[in-house]
Amino acid sequence: MDLKLYKRPVSSLSITGERVRVTPEVIAKFSSALSAKMINIYCISMGEYSISFFVDDVDMAKARDALEEIVAKTASFGALSITRNLGIVTVTGMEFISKPGVIAKLAEVLASKNINIISISTSFDSAVFVLNWDDCKKAYDAIGRDFRL
């Protein structure tokens, strides 16, 4: 398994609304606005009533301005909220494909260290954990030391 600790804090820009999940092109609309401002998206997390974009903390103001324009013009979006001072730890490996419970075991390691998971995004071979910035190094060390399959 490969473990990566991102060295800079990130911000979450979350758009909420009753129809976020069922609004066509919602990801394209917001990611295009961020791309036009040359803002890199580190992670996207989507729920029933929200979508969150995680960007470098130094780009937060530009990202906020780009997304606020869309939120203000679209009735299906209610509000834009921002959470700063977050961090990212990524775990990658083929174990995600072949062994059930990998995410649960990773979460157990973090919970045992009293680390709250703000958001998690998974793919077939990795998990991206968004945590409070102050917990990132502790999470990285705990996963590297304590994680067993």
UniProtKB/TrEMBL annotation:
Q: Name one Pfam family in it.
A: ACT_9
Question: Does this entry carry the keyword Transmembrane?
Answer: no
InterPro entries on file:
ACT-like_dom_sf, ACT_Aspartokinase, ACT_dom, CASTOR_ACT_dom
The transmembrane segments are none
Entry keyword set? ATP-binding, Kinase, Nucleotide-binding, Transferase
**Residue stretches making up the ACT domain:** 91-149
GO cellular component annotations of the record: cytosol
PROSITE patterns xref list? ACT (PS51671)
- The answer to keyword Transcription regulation applying to this record is no
GO MF terms, alphabetically ordered: aspartate kinase activity; ATP binding
Which Gene Ontology terms describe the biological processes this protein takes part in? homoserine biosynthetic process; lysine biosynthetic process via diaminopimelate
Enzyme Commission designation:
2.7.2.4
What protein family is recorded?
Answer: Belongs to the aspartokinase family.
Can you say what this protein is called?
aspartate kinase
* Organism of origin: Fermentimicrarchaeum limneticum
